[in-house]
Amino acid sequence: MSLLTKKLLFLCVLTLLLLHNVIGFGTHHVILTNDLDNNLDLTIHCKSKDDDLGVHLLHHGDTYGFKFRDRIIGNTQFYCSFQWTGEFHHFDVYIQSEDSKICGNTCNWSVKNTVICRTTSYEGYICFQWH
């Protein structure tokens, strides 16, 4: 087999592996739960550089989730705004360079009045102050 044929075969195999997510870049999920006190409704608006996922109203205890694939080149990042009576906050719910390792396939978020908390098998339950 010639060197050119070997290179072409290698490129074909590599392309197929990437297309079938064998080499990382798999599907990720972000799940957000309304855990606000006093049964408050929560309005969520999530975006990335390329996608606007729209506005969603969550009643207390409801969840909203979305799935996506990491970018092969660059850094996938999703951020959301959170609004309820008298409050408005925003938070980065997924940053590829950090969360692809920490969350694995799923980042679970609990939205609370004073903090937002993430649960993963890697780090357990950890809360963050609002930005």
TrEMBL record:
Residues 1-24 form the signal peptide. One of its GO terms (cellular component) is extracellular region. It is found in: Secreted. This is S-protein homolog. Transmembrane segments: none annotated. InterPro entries: Self-incomp_S1. Its main location: secreted. GO terms for biological process: rejection of self pollen. The keyword Signal applies. Keywords: Secreted, Self-incompatibility, Signal. PANTHER family: PTHR31232, S-PROTEIN HOMOLOG 29-RELATED. Belongs to the plant self-incompatibility (S1) protein family.
